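so im writing up the methods section and need the Blue (type 1) copper domain-containing protein record in one place, dumping it here so i stop losing it
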Amino acid sequence: MQSNLIRSTLLAALMSMAAIAHASGGHAGGHDHDDAAIGEPGDAARITRTVRVDMADTMRFTPAQITVQRGETIRFEVINRGQVRHEMTLGTPADLVAHAEQMRKHPEMEHADANAVTVDPGQRGEIVWHFTRAGSVEFACLQPGHFEAGMRGAVQVRGNKS
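--- predicted struct ---
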């Protein structure tokens, strides 16, 4: 009887978190990432190329530096070669720092943002992203402690696509 009450309470809590995540545009606790500064979700039918990104328990991305052309739509094929959950989140430096802080406070947070993918050990995921402005777009793993351990990288977006 008590286990049914616990299950019902947990289910209600999960449903509430899902509703909050949907309303906040991504995950419980929500954050406002600046898509205009980093680009926009890409259309899978317009992918220019695929870039494979490996994640490891050494708290590193390979490659950690990626170059694209403004106007390209990139499929990031993200592979977790480690034994713990990792993620790749594109963002501005300020957004990544703020989001990492939220993840430390709420480590159970699940993402549903187009600029992020969470990947369990031995699995793969993808982000399809359209780079609309030249400059630098950062990426990081925001699982608690990973960002602080140096699990980050950058995408250099060069001038106009040829």
